[in-house]
Amino acid sequence: MKALVAAAALLAAVPALAGPLTQFPKAADGHPDLSGVWQALGSAHWNIEPHTSGYPAVAELGAQFAVPPGLGIVVGGSIPYLPQARAERDRRFANRIAEDPEGKCYLGGIPRSTYMPYPFQIFQNKRDVVIAYQYATGFRRIFVDGKDEAPLNSWMGWSNGHWEGDTLVVEVIANDDRTWLDRAGNHHSNQMKVTERYTPLDANRLQYEATIDDPETFTKPWTISMHLYKHTEPNAELLEYKCVEFSEHLLYNQRSEEHTSELQSHSFISYAVFCLKKK
Asked: What do you get for the CA distance between the two ends of the chain, in Å?
């Protein structure tokens, strides 16, 4: 009899264990407190569409920099490109070593900065939500209940947000078309509008969704969806990753070689002129 009572008590406890372990913390204004260091997991930074594993862009780098497989984060699986935009995606992929702005330490843009393989930190008060990104020391300010238009296009766009229940909804406009969506050449125009949704799932997880609307590039709006995970280590903090110095060779080496060649050519011509004058 005692065994049956113990078993019944254990079964009764199962539903409680299946639910959230802790309630999501609330800010002073009653909205969810999104503050903390967050990071995406997975291989979306390589390709947001489903993809198999692949060789690295430079074969000599071997398995260490090979592309891992991924299920993708695009709802429905594929991006609804216009034909000419899909061809441009393929061209960019073929030239990704030279053209991917990540290799040049340019800001990641939205939504790419969210799922790059680097953490980011959210700061929040009643009026603003600020997100600092480790990669390239990126930064964006979300104006809560903001209505202003952007003065100009920029790498991180212009973000106006509002709350819908426990979900922070952010409209990102004025996006610079030089940003990419991943390392596979997926792209957009400067007409892209991104609508983000940050929804708490439990104390340490957010549901992140971003709907991309860009009629110059896509046949219809489409959405990406993924989880974001909070760093819960006692010493969790956002460290600086100033990557400019690591991109100098890619950015300037070719120009430097061309300049050196030009100087050598000029030196040769000057020497030839000097010799002719001596004669």
From this structure: 119
Residue 275, token pair as written in the block: 């010799």
- Please spell the DSSP secondary structure of 153-199, one letter per residue: -BTT-EEEEEEETTEEEEEEESB-TT--SSTT-----TT-EEEEEEE
Query: Of all residues in the chain, what percent are helix, strand and coil, respectively (each to 5)?
Result: 30, 30, 45
Kindly indicate the confidence band of residue 251, based on its pLDDT and cuts at 50, 70 and 90: confident
pTM of structure: 0.83
Q: How far apart are CA 174 and CA 196, in angstroms?
A: 15
User: What span, in angstroms and rounded, lies between the C-alpha atoms of 144 and 125?
Assistant: 9
C-alpha of 89 from chain center: 17
Q: What average pLDDT score do residues 94-106 get?
A: 96
Comparing CA positions, the residue from 76, 45, 47, 40 lying closest to residue 223 is 76
Q: 192 with 217: CB under 8 angstroms?
A: yes
CA-to-CA distance for 150 and 132, rounded, in angstroms? 20
Angle CA 135–157–100, to nearest 5:
50
| H helices present in 67-215, as ranges | 83-94, 96-99, 112-115
Q: Render pLDDT for 1-41 as a digit per residue (tens, 0 to 9).
A: 455 445 445 444 444 444 443 589 999 999 999 999 999 99
Centroid of chain to Cα 147 = 24
Q: Is 5 helix (H, G, I), strand (E, B) or coil?
A: helix
CA–CA distance, 83 with 114 (Å, rounded to integer): 27
CA-to-CA distance for 214 and 109, rounded, in angstroms? 15
Burial category of 73 from C-beta neighbours within 10 Å (exposed 0-12, middle 13-18, buried 19 and up): buried
Which residue in 223, 214, 122, 137 sits closest to 173, CA to CA?
214
